[in-house]
Amino acid sequence: MSALHTISGSPSSGLLDSCLKLICPGDGILFIQDGVYYGCPPYLIDCVSKDNALFALREDLLARGVFSILAERIDPVGYGRFVELTVDYDKVISWS
Asked: Could you tell me if 30 and 4 are in contact, meaning their C-beta atoms sit under 8 angstroms apart?
């Protein structure tokens, strides 16, 4: 059973570390709100397994002015794709 983990808090919140303790292969992570800063240097996401897909909400990246420095591994998605992701995964777990 796969899960989409949404992380909305900034890197100082430690939410990614908490999430990584419970994430399974095949799960995805979607960074939203201040969580998009995880995808920007120096908060690189090297600690996340390659078995986990990474996404960030495009509108939040643009609003925070960090779209151009997003790590290559993270797929920027719009609201439509965000909705599709919630259907593609069996459940959604919100980290906030």
From this structure: yes
CATH number for 73 = 3.40.1260.10
Q: What is the chain's Cα-based Rg?
A: 12
Count Cβ atoms below 10 Å from residue 60 Cβ, excluding itself.
19
Assessment of whether the complete model's pTM goes beyond 0.85: yes
42: DSSP letter: T
CB atoms within 10 A of CB 44: 12
Boundaries of domain holding 50: 3-95
DSSP for 10-27 reads -GGG-HHHHHHTT--TT-
For 48-77, write each residue's pLDDT tens digit: 999 999 999 999 999 999 999 988 889 999
State the first-to-last Cα distance of the chain, in angstroms, to the nearest integer: 22
